[in-house]
Amino acid sequence: MNSQELETAVRLGLNLVVTILNDNSYGMIRWKQAQAGFEDWGLQFNNPDFMIYAAAYGVTGHRITDTEKMTAVYEEAFDAGGVHLVEVPMDYSQNTKVLIEELQQRTCLI
User: Beta strand 16-22 with 60-63: parallel, antiparallel or unpaired?
Assistant: First the structure.
């Protein structure tokens, strides 16, 4: 939430990989509030193009578009050194199934 640290990392010549979990909202909060029956209000927003944003700071940007390539993107970023930003799109569509239904089934077995 405080991207100015990218400038500091570049200026200091650090080796750093930053991950942005991009869901264009406060998605996990939104999901939890929906589960509790709260109205969805004020939790969605638009983001900048993080690749252009990274470049503006002199940072190498990577956007994950295929989960099969995710490990390779991180290996490349860590091996190259310098400051890298990795944008990972988030999908919470399976949260209820995995974090509520399946977890509840597992805990009922104990």
Answer: unpaired
CA distance 7 to 90: 25
More confident residue, 24 or 18: 18
**Amino acid at site 81:** G
Between 8-17, 32-41, 65-74, 83-92, the lowest mean confidence (pLDDT) is in 32-41
By C-alpha distance, which of 103, 104, 71 is closest to 88? 71
Q: Both tokens of residue 71?
A: 């490990």
The CATH number of residue 88's host domain is 3.40.50.970
Domain count, the chain: 1
Any residues with CB less than 8 A from the CB of 64 and at least 6 apart, and which? 70, 73, 86, 87, 88, 89
pTM for this entry? 0.76
Q: How many CB atoms lie within 10 A of CB 22?
A: 15
Which residue in the block uniquely carries the two structure tokens 């799109």? 89
Higher-pLDDT residue of 43, 65: 65
